[in-house]
Each structure stands twice: as C-alpha cells, then as structure tokens.
Amino acid sequence: MLIHVENLIKIYQLGKVQVKALDNINLTIDRNEYVAVMGPSGSGKSTLMNIIGCLDVPTSGRYILNDQDVHNLTDDELAHIRNKEIGFVFQTFNLLPRATALHNVELPLIYNGTPRSKRREIAMNMLERVGLADRANHRPNELSGGQRQRVAIARALVNNPSLILADEPTGNLDSKTGEEIMQIFNELNEAGNTILLVTHEEDIARQTKRIIRLLDGQVIKDEMNQ
Amino acid sequence: MATLNAFFSHISEYLLMAWQALVSHKLRSFLTTLGILIGVTTIITIWTTIEGLNKYVFGQLSNIGASTVYVQKYPWVIKGDFWKYRNRKPVTYKEYQALAQYCNSAEHISPEVFSVKTIRYKNKKFENIFIIGSNQEYAYTANVAPEIGRFITELDVHYNRYVCVLGREVADQLFEKANPLGKKIFIGDRKYLVIGILERKGNFFGQSMDNFIIVPFGTFRRVYGGHREMRVALSTSPEKLEEMKDQIRSILRRVRKVPPTKEDDFAINQQDMLTDLYKSLTTTLFAIVFVIGGISLVVGGIGIMNIMLVSVAERTREIGIRKAIGATRKNILSQFLFEAIVISSIGGFIGIVFGFFAGNVVLSQMSLSGTVSLTSILIGFGFSGFVGVLAGFYPAYKAASLNPIDSLRYE
Ligand SMILES: Nc1ncnc2c1ncn2[C@@H]1O[C@H](COP(=O)(O)OP(=O)(O)O)[C@@H](O)[C@H]1O
Ligand SMILES: [Mg+2]
Fold first, then answer.
1. CB B358 within 8 Å of CB B44
2. Which residues form the domain of B225?
3. Is residue B220 domain-shared with residue B75, that is, in the same domain?
4. Residue A164's pLDDT is what?
5. Chosen domain end from B235, B255, B270
6. Ligand 1 atom 6 nearest Cα
7. Same domain, residue pair B99 and B221
8. Is the predicted pLDDT of residue B7 greater than 70, yes or no?
9. Which atom of ligand 1 is found nearest the CA of A43?
10. What ipTM did this prediction achieve?
C-alpha cells in the first residue's frame, strides 16, 4: 500500500462562505497502480492531488504515504518527500521560464545535493527518455506545448519517485500531442511506476487500469478498468 | 570535509542562481546597486584622503620635533579670549639670554627672528623670501642639516658675520645648476656669503618648505633692527621635556616678574598642540564620513530591500515551482538572501574600484603620498555585504514562508 487516505476533508474559507472541496474521501492505492481521477470541474480533483502530492494539507482526516503519517511531518520533511517520493506533472507545465530544458530537469537534483556533473548526466538521460535530448538547451518559450510537458515529465522522473501525480497533463495539448504524452505515461506504468492522473477525457481514462470518479468532493465510483 | 564540500557547492549554486536572476534584469540591478556604490566610493575616497593627510601632516609636524618647545607671545592654538594675549610683552633677547644661562635641562636653545626680504644674485631677483635670524643651535631645534657646505657656527654668530645658509629651493632658483658655495648674494641691500645649502624638506599644503634663508642672529638684528618680535626654541630629550618646561616657566616668570597669583604672560608652544588640534579636526571628518557613508548605505539598503520585495512578488510562481519539486524553506531563504548579498556586493565592488581611482586622483591632486586605505576597502566590502544581508533577510524570509500551493496558483 503506497497511499492511504481516511476521512479526508478539505474546506476552503471564502470570506463567510465555506467551500467543502473534499468531503470525506477514503482511498487506498497500491504500488504500480495506474489510476485516473475523473469528475466535472470543481469536483475536487486538483485539491485531492495537491494533498496527495504534499503541496497542501487537509482540514481533517489522515493521509499515509509509504507508511508515514504525513500529518506529523515537518516542513523540511515534506519538502524532502516532494523531492524524492513524488513527481508532479501540472496542466500548465510549471517550468522555470528563464531556465533551459536541461536546467529545469536538473532542478530537483539540486535540492537533494546531487553533484553537478552527475546531475547533468541524469537529467540528460531523462530528456533522452522523453525524446528531447536535442532540445536540452532550449528555453520553455522555444518549445511546443507537448515538448514542454515532456520536459515537465522528465523533471518529475528525475529523482525516480515512488509516485507520479499528473493533474490534467494533456489538458493544454491537442489530442494528438496528448496521445503522445499518454504513451509516455503508459510506458512508465509498464516499467513499474505508480501513476495517478487527473483527466476529464474518457479516452484518456480508458488507458489507465482504475478510474476514481469524484462529484462534489466525494468518491462516487471507484472501479477497475475493463 | 564532506559537509564542507556540500556547503561550498551549495554556495556556488546560490551564487549562480543570484547571478542569473540579476543578469535577467540588468538595468534594474545596476540602479539598485547605486546607493551602495556611492556609499562605498564616498567612504573609500574620503578615508583615503584623510589617511593621506594624516601621514603628511604628522610627517610635517614631526619636523618640528616632539621635544622642541617654542617660547612665544601667542599660543599656537588660541582658546577663548584673543585680547588678553594682545597686551602681553613680547619675548625679548634678554629673556633668551636668561634661558640660555639658566635652563640647564635644555640641550639646545636658539633665538629666532623673522623677516621677509627681496634677494638678488647677478640678474636674478626674488621677492618675499623668508629670512630667519638664529644661531648654530637652530640646526638641532629645527632639525635641519646642510646637504652641502656647512651650517652657521658659533663664530659666525659671535662675529656677526655676513654669511647665509639657503633653503634648497632658494638655492635652485638663484643658482640653477651652478655651485652656490662661496658666492655672494644680496638679502635686502646687504651682501652675504653662501656657506651651505639645506636638505630638501618638501611641501606642506602646497607651500614649499625650502624657500627660506638663515643668517646669524646678531647680523640679522644689526641689519634689520633689534626690536623685532622673537621666539626662543628649546629642545631636549623626550624624558626631560616636562622638567624643561617647568624650568622655562620659573625662569621666565622670575625675569618677567609675574606675581604668583597671575598666570603666565607668555606661551610655551609645542608640536602636540598642533597634533591635538589636527586630531580633533580629523575626528570630526571621520564622523562626517561615517554619517555620509552610513546614510547612503542605509538608502542603498532600503533600495535593495525594495527591489527584493518586488522580485519575490514577481517570482512567486517560481518559488511555488521550486517548493513543489523539493526546495526547503532554507533553500529559498538562501537563494534570495544570496541574491541581495550579490547585488550589494557588486555595488560594493564597483564602489571599491571607483573609490580606488577617486582616492588616487585626490591624493595626486593634493600631491599627497600614500595609498588607498586597505582598511576602508575592507570596511567598504564588509559594509556592503552586511547591508545585503540586512536588506535581503526580510524579503528572503517572506519568500521562504510562502506556501507552495498558493504560490503555484499565483498569477
Ligand atoms: N484556494 C482555493 N480557495 C477557495 N476555494 C478553492 C480553492 N481551490 C479550490 N477551491 C474550490 O474547491 C472546489 C474544488 O476545486 P478543485 O479541486 O480545483 O476542482 P477540480 O480540480 O476538480 O476542478 C471548487 O469549488 C473550487 O472553487
Ligand atoms: Mg483542477
């Protein structure tokens, strides 16, 4: 068991109004699973991903990652987990605009003190793996959307994380490019990576092995694919 | 060792980040450094000037000799009422004789009278040359020595001979390359035999110190009158200085019949009066340097803090991204702190370079010897780093405290 969440609740306070983004979520995800999280806009998919990715904390409930209760961890320990255990892929890529593709991929390695020369090598390998070795020295604005998302995936993979989280990774891409990105995720899962991805395209969800459907912050359906 | 290596590789990482951030806003970064730059330039330039002046002034003052005192009507540094000194009797030849006879703690005593005359040699003529009438002891009390020829002797003084010793510049002007020894020159309308040339003393605030002539005391008085104001110079070894001053006082009070209830009606002047005056002057100057430098560094620091706050706000998303992929608070804090320190140090560095040049220009313009003060360079560098840390800390802390998810959402 890699991820276990229990009675997870997230409430946003907007002035006097309370928004219950997550309403009592219970989930268990094992290693090597390939899961799609689906649901209409505003159903709480991103909120759930952010909590699982240790970017945000729940209002109440338990989250256990790799047998560790995340609630008890310090800021630095959370940073360490984000660095080593989790690879996040965002809809909007979130690359550093002024850094080259290679430097963007190297970034997580900087924060765990990998020596410079080794960093280069690992980052280069990752770029090769997503088919962008020849674009290593391009900046994000010199790359297409699909290429940027590949850089982001390379960055997510660079520390060999136990979990890959992707929040609508194909949302900003045309369907052909989206398909190419999905190809990479499929290969990664075949190679043993655990992947949790948010999408609202059935085509994409169908390529995963398990689909969790959210509505108004609740899990309404959680089933194996086919 | 491993941790030390890690520490340095981290530093190089932060320096690189800082450099890239600064280069991407060249003009802004440059403008931000201006305050620090000006502050450091000011400190180094003024500091260097003061040190150059110090070296020079103290060098010149040491010519007077630490253990030479001058008995005169007026003190060198007048505190309070000038008028009370005006009614004093001038120092007389009789008093000189009394001192010469009774002041046995003095090693050398010279009477000194002064005048300004026109001098002439062949067709060359110079006006306003300073003439000193004194005796053979003057060489010791004034610490001068002939470079060629000889100084005035006791016999010259005894027989009131028409001989003179020239300052180096007078000799150069009158004789150019010719040998002045044995030549006769006119001082006023009297002819004098040149017997010696003094070693060069240099300039004091642009004034030549070699532009004078010494003649025997009696000769001077016979030619130019015996009632001129004079002073008496007395010198001794440093340990006997106080004793000598006491002796001078008691002798002069007796000769001048000063009642015990009255204060001295003469002044015993000494080099350290000037040194003290000069020191209090430069203390004020140093205070001014610190105020000016301090103000521009504070202004510079505020500028840096301001820009850093802007920079943190602009790069909120970048901070979010870095945190999302594993940057700790300390990582973010260091990144922005280093950026502030680098900006500030670049300002400091350029300031040091400017200050170095400006300092040298000032030194050469004032014809002072000396070098740009190392202390001021170190202070300039230390200050700019310090200002960087101070100014950068709050913005960096703010950046480090950002929450990853909010920063990522920031547009
Ligand atoms: N930072 C926030 N402040 C207030 N409300 C938020 C915030 N983030 C999300 N929400 C609200 O929580 C609900 C779930 O949002 P989200 O998880 O982004 O949905 P999804 O990703 O499924 O579209 C929405 O109603 C949204 O408006
Ligand atoms: Mg979303």
1. yes
2. 68-270
3. yes
4. 96
5. B270
6. A12
7. yes
8. no
9. 22
10. 0.95
The Cα B35–Cα B50 span in angstroms is: 22
Task: Count Cα atoms within 13 angstroms, Cβ side, for B74.
Answer: 10
pLDDT single digits (tens) B338-380? 999 999 999 999 999 999 999 999 888 887 877 888 888 888 8
Please report where in the chains the tokens 């969440």 appear, as a residue. A5
- CB distance A119 to A56 below 8 Å: no
- pLDDT exceeding 90 applies to what percent of chain B? 53
Give the β-pairing of B190-198 and B163-166. parallel
- Report residue B111: phi and psi, to 5°: -80, 145
Residue B5 pLDDT: 66
Domain co-membership, B56 together with B93: no
Question: Measured between CB atoms, which of B9, B20, B322 is closest to A115?
Answer: B9
Nearest CA to ligand 1 atom 18: A46
Q: Give me A127's structure tokens.
A: 């770029």
Q: What is the span of the domain harbouring residue A52?
A: 3-224
Same domain assignment for residues B234 and B146: yes
Give residue B396's pLDDT band: very low, low, confident or very high (50, 70, 90). very high
A64-95 CB burial, b ≥16 within 10 A, e <16: bbeeeebeebeeeebbbbbbbbbbbbbbebbb
What pLDDT score does B337 carry?
Answer: 94
pLDDT at B48 exceeding the cut of 90: no
> pLDDT tens, B154-193?
999 999 999 999 999 999 999 988 899 999 999 998 999 9
| Residue A157 near residue A188 (C-beta atoms within 8 A) | yes
CB contact under 8 A, A110 and B329: no
Note whether B20 contacts A98, CB cutoff 8 Å.
yes
Structure tokens at B14: 């932060």
Q: Take residue A208 and report the two structure tokens written for it.
A: 């995963």
Q: Based on the domain organization, do B174 and B112 belong to the same domain?
A: yes
B125 in the same domain as B258: yes
Residue B259 tokens, joined: 């009642």
pLDDT band at B64 (very low <50, low <70, confident <90, very high): low
- In which residue ranges of chain A is pLDDT below 70? none
B70 and B269 Cβ atoms separated by less than 8 Å: yes
Distance CA A143, CA A139 (A): 7
Interface of A with B (CB under 8 A): 50, 53, 55-56, 75-76, 79-80, 82-84, 88, 90, 94-96, 98, 107-108, 110-113, 115-116, 155, 159
Angle, CA B65 vertex, CA B64 and CA B71 arms, to 5°: 70
Closest CA to B53 of B292, B366, B378, B379: B366
Tell me the nearest-neighbour CA distance from B378 into chain A, angstroms: 33
Reduced to 3 states (helix: H, G, I; strand: E, B; else coil), residue B180 is: coil
Q: How far apart are CA B133 and CA B233, in angstroms?
A: 12
Q: Read off the pLDDT of residues B309-332 as tens digits, 9 standing for 90 and up.
A: 999 999 999 999 999 999 999 999
Q: What is the CATH number of the domain that holds A206?
A: 3.40.50.300
* CA pair distance B290, B286, nearest whole angstrom: 6
